[in-house]
Amino acid sequence: MRKPIIAGNWKMHKSIKEGVAFVEAIKPDVANTDVEVLICAPYTLLQNMVEAAKGSNIKIGAQNMHFEDKGAFTGEVTADMLLEIGVTHVIIGHSERRQYYGETDQTVNLKTKKALAKGLVPVVCVGETLEQREAGETKDVCKTQIVNAFEGIDAKDVPTIVVAYEPIWAIGTGKTASSQDANDVIAYIREVLKDLYTDAVSEEVRIQYGGSVKPANVEEIMNESDIDGALVGGASLLEADFVQLVNF
Ligand SMILES: O=C[C@H](O)COP(=O)(O)O
C-alpha cells in the first residue's frame, strides 16, 4: 500500500517569518492525516522551518540541489548542506529548473543518484509541454524523462523515489489535466518503471500529479487508482487551502 504524499512547492515565495508562522498554524490541522505532508521551501527558510516542524508530521524539503559534494559552483547547495539542517526531501528536475536553469535529463539523473546516496528523498519531476501534448507525444516524452532519470539506479533504491508528473501547460495556469488523463499518464509511467525494474518495484513507487491542484479538485485527483499524491504550487501558499489539500 503506497502512502499518499501531498507536497507544497513554494517556489520563490515567503519570508522566514511567514514560513515559520505557516508551519505553526497548520500543525494541529494536519496532525491526524494519513498522508505524508511535505513543504518544499526556498533555501533561506529551510532551517527555521525544520525547527518549527519538529515534533510534528510535517516534513521540509528543498527545491533543488547540486550533484557534486563540493566545488566552485557559485550559488549552488549540496545534499550534505541540506541534510545538515534537517531537510529530508528535495525536488529534482522541476520544469521551471529545466526551462530556466539548464536542468537536463542527465543532471536530473546525477542529482537523483546523489540524493539517494546521501539519504534524501528525491521528488523527480517529469511532464510534457502543451506543444508535445498536442502532437500526441505525452507518453514518449515522459518515458524518455523517466528512463533517463532512473539510468543506473539500483532497484532497491527505486521505492524511495517519489515521481511527480506535471504537465507543464497545467502549471500555474488554472488548467488541470482531467483526473482520468493524469491517471492514464501516471499508470503509463508505472508501466515504464515495471519494464525497467519489476512489477513489485514499480507498484511501490509513489507518483504524484502536479498542475493547478486545489481544494476543489484534489479529491477527484486522489481518487484515481494510480495517483499517489499531489505536488502543489499556488494553492500550497495559503494555510487554509493546504490544510484542505492534506485532509482531502
Ligand atoms: O510544483 C508545483 C507545480 O509547478 C504546480 O504548480 P501550481 O499548483 O501552481 O500549478
From TrEMBL:
GO molecular function list: triose-phosphate isomerase activity
Main EC class the enzyme belongs to: isomerase
Enzyme Commission number(s): 5.3.1.1
Primary location: cytoplasm
Pathway where this protein functions: Carbohydrate biosynthesis; gluconeogenesis; Carbohydrate degradation; glycolysis; D-glyceraldehyde 3-phosphate from glycerone phosphate: step 1/1
Reactions this protein catalyses: D-glyceraldehyde 3-phosphate = dihydroxyacetone phosphate
Entry keyword annotation includes Isomerase: yes
Subcellular location: Cytoplasm
Keywords: Cytoplasm, Gluconeogenesis, Glycolysis, Isomerase
Domain of life per record: Bacteria
Transmembrane segments: none
Family recorded in the similarity comment: Belongs to the triosephosphate isomerase family.
Role according to the record: Involved in the gluconeogenesis. Catalyzes stereospecifically the conversion of dihydroxyacetone phosphate (DHAP) to D-glyceraldehyde-3-phosphate (G3P).
Subunit structure, interactors included: Homodimer.
Protein name per UniProt: Triosephosphate isomerase
Gene name of the record: tpiA
